[in-house]
Structures are given as C-alpha cells and as structure tokens.
Design a protein that fits this description.
Structural class: mainly alpha
Order of helices and strands: EHHHHHHHHHEHHHHHHHHH
Helix content: over 70%
Number of strands: 2
Oligomer: single chain
Strand content: under 5%
Distance between the termini: 15 Å
Strand order of the largest sheet: 1-2
Largest sheet: 2 strands, antiparallel
C-alpha cells in the first residue's frame, strides 16, 4: 500500500481560512452552496469541452476541404484525440486522488484553451494532430474531474446520480451545440468559431483558479493525506489496484462498448451516414443532436432504474442489447422518413446512457481513495473503444463513401455492443448503495 503522512486539521490554519475566503465559513460543507458552485463549474468545463469535441463532426468537412485532407486523415485525427485522451486519462484520475482539484483542474482548463486556439489555427494534418493532443491532455481531467468533485463534495450515496447528471448536462450541451455550430458556420468561418470557444476557455480558467478546491475537513479530522512515495509509483499502484479488480475491468469493458459506440456516432459517423441516406447537412446535425439528447435522458435514468431493480447487472445487459438493436437500425435500417430516423437516433443515445452504470459499479468496488482512479480507468477504456470505432472504419471506407460503403464498414459497432453485454453479464451483481467485494 502507498504510504501517507496524515495531518490533522486546525480551524485557524491558512488552509481553512483560504477555504472560506470566497463563500463564508458556513458554506464549506458537503452538499452546501459552495459544493454546488464548484460542481456547476466542473460540469461547465465538461459541457464546454464536449461542445468542442462533438463539434468536430460538424466542422471536420470544412477542415478537410480547407486543409486539403483525406477522409482517412480526418478520421485518424479524431482517433488521435481519443487515443491520447485515453492514455492521459489513466494518469489524471490518480493525480486527482493524490493531489485533489487545486490547481489540477485550472491547469486542465488552460490546456484545453490552448488546444482550442491551436485547433483554430489548423492549416494541415500536423497542426490538427498537435491540437488534438493538447486538447486531449487537458480534457482528460474534465469528466473524471467533475465526477471527482461530485464524490468529494456530496454524500457518497449520491455519487452515481451526480455523475449521471454531469453526463446529462454534457449531452444536452452537445445536442444543442451541434445544430448551433451548424447555424453559426453560416455566419462565420470554422476558424472564427473555434477561436470563440478558446476565448471562453480563458474566462473559465480564471474562474477555476479562484473558486475550485477540495472541501475542507471538519476540525479535528484528517485534513490532507500527503503521499510520501514517488508520484509515478503511487499512480501505478492506484492503477494496478483498479485494473486488478474484476468488477472495475468488467465495468470498463461494458461502459466502453456503450459510450465508445455513441462517441463514434456522435462525433464522426452520425452526420456522414445520414448524409449518405440523403439527409441535408442541417437535418443530419439535428439527428446527431437527438442522439446526444437521448443520452442526456439515459445517463441519469439508468442509475434510477438500477436502484429500482436492486441490480446493476440486469439493466446493464438489457441496455447494451437495446443499444445494439438501435445502432443496427441506424446502419442497416431502410431509408425511413424523418420521423423514424429521429426515433432511431434518440434510441441510440438513450441506451448509450447505460455506460454510466460502469462508473457506478467501479466506484462501489474500490476504496474511497481510489474513486478518481477507478473512474479514469472506465473513462479511458470508453475513449479507447471510441477511438478504435472511428479510425478502423475510416481506413475501410473510400474517400467518397456511399451508404453501401458505410454498411460494409460499420458492422463492428453492433458486434462491440454484444461483446459489452457479455462483459456486463459476467459482473458479480451488487446491491445499489453497497460496495461490492474487491477483487
């Protein structure tokens, strides 16, 4: 086990005085006003970076044309983001477990801001890849950071719900953001649009620097557990503890199947398949937005259903199988009218919300000091799967694909979802609200 030096809190020390400088002495408590302000800021970070990330589905055709890129390069750049995000993700959760939110989350927002400015300056494949890597480094702290804030500032029983609400807000932001981005591109260039996103990041960075921190413990309790081992040794130990936990691994696999498929549809393939079906670019953006809106409902709902059913495994298996049906209809279904297409895309996102159970099960299966690490493992696998489902079809498709070409290349999506359902089936079912046995 990692060694720590535990320091007892003193209500008169500098740490406690700083903790109450913005909100007053009575607000620094779990679930209090300061908790909600910090959680809302962390959630705003996720919504903002999701808008940048999912906006790639809308701006990528213009980037492809202006920068003289091929479809394979565009899909490869999207995969670079997801793969590097997944790699950085494994470290971000452990760093949050070790050092807390201040100043890590402010630095993360600053990195996404720099990446967005680089993104706006893209003139070739090399610059696009560099922007994606910098974006990925900062964004790796986003979703896990918001979950970490929810786990630290709110009661443990609300962890799954708070995490689901983060995903709901991010999905609503993506649902609104994609049609909005499509409309804004009629008024400005994609470079100007991305520069606007980056400018918003400057303001968000300042807010994080002044306001976001970990909760101060009550007087007489352990204030800070300062690890005495090397930082990288500690990170590797945390990751080994999570990866050695059967429940965490299975949770990561089924969550990765659900979210990875949704990510590949929502970020890249959704608008292109709908375009091949004959939809206008505006309606294709609306259909993709409906998928994100569906996940906004599904993400918190799946934890509610799980609690009602007193089971984690059963809703995970059923949700993944229903998502596989919806994705199969999206790829291979007949050229239905607008109404049917809207229902199918909403269902793709709704059942993709099943992935939030992966975070819940993983968090319930580890000790409290590994919450960030377990969430990072699950989220990292989600983006590894998402990256694979973006890049593999990209290399199987011609530069100007037809609907038949998409159907020949995207078969891997329903297969991945069925494999995810098998991973969920292998879970040791747990009673909601109680931690599972580790191992």
């Amino acid at each position: 086990m990692e060694e720590f030096v535990v320091v007892m809190s003193d209500p008169t020390d500098g740490y406690t005085r700083a903790a109450t400088s913005f909100f007053g002495k009575d607000t620094a408590r779990l679930g209090g006003p300061e908790a909600w302000v910090i959680w809302l800021l962390a959630t705003a970070f996720v919504v903002w970076l999701f808008a940048i990330q999912t906006g790639y589905a809308i701006v990528s055709p213009q980037i492809q044309e202006d920068a003289g890129l091929s479809l394979a390069q565009v899909s490869a750049a999207a995969s670079v983001y997801t793969v590097f995000f997944a790699i950085f993700q494994f470290f971000s959760g452990s760093l949050l477990d070790r050092y807390g939110t201040r100043p890590l989350l402010a630095l993360a927002v600053a990195l996404v801001t720099v990446g967005a400015f680089l993104y706006a300056a893209t003139s070739g494949f090399g610059m696009l890849v560099l922007a994606q890597i910098v974006l990925a480094l900062g964004a790796s702290f986003g979703f896990v950071g918001a979950g970490y804030v929810g786990g630290k500032w709110f009661d443990a029983a609300r962890y799954g719900l708070m995490f689901g609400l983060v995903q709901m807000c991010a999905s609503v932001g993506s649902a609104i953001g994609q049609p909005t981005i499509s409309a804004l591109l009629e008024l400005m260039t994609w470079k100007q649009l991305l520069a606007g996103f980056a400018s918003a990041g400057v303001l968000l960075t300042i807010a994080f620097g002044f306001l976001v921190r970990d909760p101060a413990p009550a007087p007489g309790t352990a204030r800070i557990a300062r690890p005495t081992t090397n930082v990288w040794v500690g990170i590797l130990r945390n990751l080994r503890a999570c990866i050695g936990n059967r429940q965490v691994v299975l949770s990561a696999l089924f969550a990765g199947a659900a979210f990875g498929t949704m990510l590949s549809v929502g970020v890249l393939w959704g608008p292109r398949v709908q375009d091949a079906r004959g939809a206008s670019s505006g309606f294709a953006a609306v259909l993709t937005a409906l998928a994100w809106l569906g996940m906004a409902f599904g993400a918190p709902l799946v934890n509610v259903v799980s609690n009602r059913w007193h089971s984690r495994r059963r809703p995970a298996v059923i949700g993944l199988l229903l998502q596989a049906v919806a994705v199969t209809l999206f790829i291979y279904g007949p050229a239905n009218g607008p109404g049917a297409s809207m229902v199918v895309m909403f269902a793709v996102g709704l059942f993709a919300g099943t992935h939030m159970l992966g975070f819940t099960v993983a968090g319930e299966s580890v000790s409290p000091n590994l919450i960030g690490s377990s969430a990072a493992v699950v989220n990292g696998v989600c983006f590894i799967v998402g990256g694979a489902l973006q890049v593999i079809p990209g290399y199987l498709l011609p530069n100007d694909p037809t609907l038949g070409d998409f159907r020949a290349a995207l078969w891997v999506m329903p297969v991945v979802l069925v494999l995810g359902a098998l991973a969920a089936l292998a879970l040791r079912d747990s009673i909601p609200g109680k931690a599972a046995d580790p191992g």
